[in-house]
Specification:
about 650 residues, alpha+beta, 6-stranded mixed sheet, 27 helices
Length: about 650
């Protein structure tokens, strides 16, 4: 079929690509056992990391939402790409030439809409940066220099200039082969009675990039006095650009954020530039919209939900800045990290502060940040006249509303003293007001900024079931509780009681067979009967392994083996196989994995031999006592089985 990429090229690209490096562009991953990494899932909102990546296997799986796959699947889902687009994207990064079934790549006119838009943005950015260096760009260069950004700084951030023309960019894009329809879809032009015309005219241009540094939109500032448009103008919502899902500067800041566990949220493009040039290279900014829940998700994934992480908001000291701070406070409960606010006493933003007082002043502003709760409490109190009894009572009530949302109970005593000192009342009065506020329905409370509700409880993927012979409800023995998936009872519903030890053995043996087939005696494993696995779901996975050719056909490359087993399994079974592929083996670091593998598989063999022995014993009991030869044969088989079991126990 025309346009299909050759299978051997896909396999070669997979072997060249590190899945942890690709996913690491979007998710902060931490070591989570031997050969395993973990982070916050990018596909659903969570506070406890359940997204696991196994580089050696080339797979990922989220134990919270069930998403799983390989490096191509990840790119498809995270970037909304087709399979071919995901392969082509990775091939471009790896510098690998792809071959297609018809001997050539797809016609560019038939290329994906998304890829065309990305290419167009790259062409547009080059156009803007070249225009900045032209004579017409002098006004933009003077503006940037006046803000403390010389030419080298402008080049570092990819700053450009949109000529004061109705069709400079649209004509350039047309000559580059892009249609009017595509230019409009990219948000780079508007449409009037005489056709399309440039959206950005006579403005400084900032490229807005995604986390992988691909340009997806632009921000533009007015330069000419006769420009009646808004001071700042951004790309409208497009297939690439969603303003509530983008943070300007994130492509430059992400590595420093992951390393320092700190994010600094500023208010504008020039503030991001000033902060980075001053050494605060964790700075990012929203793009033409207020800070919101989608931005929280981005930041949490970068920080890895580290409770020691810091999110520092910078706001102007004026009324608008206070309003922005209170808006950010609405989402404070969604963070696991600590939240702070940095407000310059004279009301200077980071860009103005750097111009007037230098780089060190910007760094000091961030380092001297105050807890966001403290700022919000101060703002709430400031609305009342503390010289009157009524004012002080109202201020205590307003502050109490804020204090009810503090998660860290250990810091409450500090805030009790803080509020009491600010208002001039006894600490007991503050504590009493907080107790009263907690008893009142949240929607009826008055005086505090509106808050987003606490994160809704995630629908659990599991339920705990007590099995016959399991521990009592009060016991905390995790080995004695079986987790059963509710969603697909046909896969894992237990039709008969199974001991926790047996379940652990069956699961462990399959994990070894899938993750380290080279450590298992393939001939023996493939000879196991269908009755070797009592768990019906695990029995189906055993069948999938057999349909993939069995362990004897696994080969040396784990990622290809995993792919073959997944291809041989039913769709409803794939998430469970993915779990077994990415779940770290329960081996303490530094111990012998090979020994564990041999032991767990030997234990499974022993269970199967024990089952056969019981059947032989049953036959022996039913055997006619006059049939001496038959009894002797059965006894001989039992003796052989016991010898096998004795040898297996040496491996366990």
């Amino acid at each position: 079929m025309a346009g299909l990429i050759k299978r051997e090229d896909i396999d070669e690209l997979r072997s060249r690509t590190r899945i942890d490096e690709v996913i690491g562009e979007f998710v902060t991953l931490k070591t989570a056992g031997i050969g395993s990494l973990k982070g916050l899932c990018p596909f659903h909102d969570e506070k406890t990391p359940s997204f696991t990546v196994r580089p050696q296997v080339g797979m990922y799986h989220c134990f919270g939402c069930g998403e799983s796959g390989d490096v191509f699947t990840f790119l498809q889902k995270i970037e909304q790409l087709s399979f071919v687009e995901a392969v082509e994207t990775l091939a471009g990064k790896a510098g690998m030439h792809l071959r297609y079934e018809d001997g050539k790549g797809p016609d560019r006119e038939q290329a994906s809409r998304r890829q065309r838009l990305l290419e167009m943005h790259e062409v547009a950015q080059r156009f803007f940066t070249q225009a900045l260096e032209s004579p017409a760009g002098q006004i933009a260069r003077e503006f940037l220099i006046g803000r403390g950004f010389p030419a080298e700084s402008s080049r570092e951030f990819g700053i450009g200039f949109a000529p004061k023309s109705w069709d400079a960019l649209t004509s350039h894009l047309g000559r580059a082969g892009f249609t009017d329809e595509e230019i409009l879809a990219a948000g780079l032009a508007s449409e009037g009675g005489r056709g399309i015309y440039d959206r950005f005219r006579g403005r400084v241009i900032w490229p807005i990039k995604d986390m992988t540094a691909r340009t997806i939109g632009f921000g533009a500032r007015r330069l000419y006095d006769d420009d009646k448009g808004p001071k700042y103008l951004n790309t409208p919502e497009t297939a690439l650009y969603r303003k509530n899902q983008v943070l300007y500067g994130l492509d430059l800041a992400k590595r420093s954020i992951a390393k320092s566990k700190r994010v600094v949220v500023v208010e504008g493009y020039t503030d991001v530039m000033a902060a980075h040039l001053a050494g605060v290279d964790q700075a990012v900014a929203t793009c033409g919209t207020a800070f919101g829940a989608e931005h929280v998700k981005i930041i949490r994934r970068l920080l890895g939900d580290d409770p020691t992480g810091q999110v520092v908001f910078t706001f102007d000291g004026d009324a608008a800045g206070q309003k922005a701070a209170l808006k950010a406070f609405e989402f404070e409960s969604l963070f696991t990290a600590q939240t702070f606010v940095a407000v310059e006493p004279e009301g200077l933003d980071p860009c103005d502060l750097r111009m007037q007082k230098g780089d060190a002043a910007v760094r000091e502003l961030i380092d001297d940040c105050k807890p966001l709760f403290e700022f919000v409490i101060t703002t709430a109190i400031a609305r009342f006249d503390l010289d009157t009894v009524e004012g002080r009572i109202s201020a205590v009530r307003a502050a109490a509303e804020v204090l009810t949302d503090i998660r860290d109970q250990g810091s409450l005593s500090h805030y009790y003293r803080f509020v009491a000192g600010r208002i001039g009342v006894d600490i007991d009065e503050v504590e009493s007001a907080v107790r009263t506020a907690r008893r009142a329905p949240k929607q009826n409370r008055q005086g505090a900024p509106a808050r987003q509700g606490a994160e809704p409880a995630r629908a659990e993927s599991y339920r705990q079931e007590q099995r016959p012979g399991a521990a009592s409800a009060g016991e905390a023995d995790s080995d004695r509780i079986e987790y059963v998936y509710d969603e697909r009872p046909d896969v894992s519903n237990l039709s008969a009681p199974i001991s926790p030890a047996r379940l652990k053995t069956e699961k462990g043996a399959l994990m070894v067979a899938l993750q380290h087939p080279e450590m298992v005696n393939a001939k023996l494993f493939d000879s196991l009967s269908a009755k070797a696995f009592e768990h019906p779901g695990y029995r189906r996975i055993q069948e999938a392994i057999g349909q993939a050719g069995g362990l004897g056909a696994a080969g040396p490359e784990q990622s290809k083996w995993a792919e073959r087993v997944l291809a041989a399994s039913d769709e409803d079974l794939k998430p469970y196989i993915a779990q077994l592929l990415v779940t770290p083996l329960p081996v303490i670091e530094g111990t012998d994995i090979d020994r564990f593998a041999r032991g767990i598989v030997a234990r499974l063999f022993d269970y199967d031999l024990e089952r056969i022995a019981k059947e032989l014993h049953s036959r022996l009991q039913r055997q006619d006592t006059s049939d001496g030869d038959g009894q002797a044969a059965l006894l001989g088989q039992l003796q052989t089985l016991e010898q096998h079991r004795a040898r297996l126990k040496m491996l366990m």
